[in-house]
Amino acid sequence: MTAELRAYQVHNCPGCGEDRSHPVNLGDPPLRRCDRCSVVYAPQYADPSEVYVEGYLFGETPFGLDLMHPIFQAFLAQAAATRLRLIEKVVGPNASFLDVGCGTGELLAVARARGWTTTGVEPVSQSAEYAIQQRGLQVIPDLLERSGLPEHSFDVVSAFHVVEHMIDAQSFLRTLSRWAKPGGHVVVEVPNWRSFHRRNAGPGWEGLRPLEHLGHYGPETLKATMRRAGLRPVLVRTPTFLWARQTLDHRLDALGLYKWKGRSRPQRVFGRPGQLKGEAVIVPRRLTALALAGLGATYERLGVGQVVLAIAEVPPPTSEPSARSAGDPSATQ
Ligand SMILES: [Zn+2]
Fold it and tell me: Which of 116, 270, 290, 332 could form a disulfide with 97 if both were Cys (CB 3.0 to 4.6 A apart)?
């Protein structure tokens, strides 16, 4: 099916627009690294109109994921709680939240339960309809630019796992900024190019997603891309999503420990039989769970966790120097 897709060449770095790059030893054809800003990017991508289609988040297309699987749903609720705890560190609770590309609304549902006023936009109408009908969320089934939502009106504008799909990340970040209040925040999350996960998995890295993921960012390159888009990064973290009822294999996956996954001896030594949503699974023993959580915390300290979550402040609109400095002395503070 992939062979029938139209692929387009990427000529410029999605992070900064530069056209000079050199090959990276990963991917087929190999990824490129920008000579100017070091963002790694895919040399080609599929026609977005063939990727982001109905069924994208329901496991019904060659791309996308089956978000509706009960274990994936449980994972997303846990990940949402981790994400919101980080956001609340910077922004405080109970503010207004706009999630761009909200999918089926897992993050918004958790944010609403924590007291936030929530709105979503989602261009794939099947996902948007699910968020509206099944979760009772306010979601506009369209692109942000066509949503009709007032600009400069949200405390937080977020986009989880969207930036890596963008051919021009700066332009996308500027668009997000336009819907945040001056002094508000833009929050984005991407797979972590610098993750232990990526280094250990090689071509099997889940963040690679050929033809779909264009830009690959680590904490530093994401921060620099946000600065180029006029944002001020205030908190950049690399969490690994581990949670209480996760199976041993899912934890090993999250931590990039593929070599241990599914092997019977480590499963017997480090795991024990358990239940997850009615399925028989192997869960870690207590000490193993503690050790894996410790490893996740170490990854975070080293900046090599599963994803990069970055929170940046949207500066107040740049004052017109000629008009303001001439007419309003207080403008310069
Ligand atoms: Zn670049």
Answer: 116
Sign of CA dihedral 192, 198, 204, 208: positive
Ligand 1 centroid – CA 256 distance (Å) = 27
Token pair, residue 36, equals 């100017």
The CA 37 to ligand 1 mean position distance, Å, reads 4
CA of 38 to the centre of ligand 1 (A): 6
CA distance 290 to 31: 36
Q: Give pLDDT tens digits for 128-160.
A: 999 999 999 999 999 999 999 999 999 999 999
Distance 242 CA to ligand 1 centre (A): 32
pTM greater than 0.70 (yes/no): yes
CATH architecture, range 2-242+301-313: 3-Layer(aba) Sandwich (3.40)
pLDDT tens digits along 25-63: 998 889 999 999 999 999 998 876 766 666 666 666 665
How far, in Å, are 82, 318, 332, 333 from residue 326 at the CA level? 47, 15, 11, 14
Q: What are phi and psi of 187, to 5 degrees?
A: -125, 125
Going by the DSSP 8-state scheme, the letter that residue 63 receives in this structure is S
Q: Tell me how far apart the alpha carbons of residues 48 and 168 are, in angstroms, rounded to a whole number.
A: 14
Backbone torsions φ then ψ of 35, nearest 5 degrees: -70, -20
In the chain, which segments carry CATH 3.40.50.150? Answer: 2-242+301-313
* Surrounding residues of ion ligand 1, Cβ less than 5 A: 13, 15-16, 18, 34, 36-37, 39
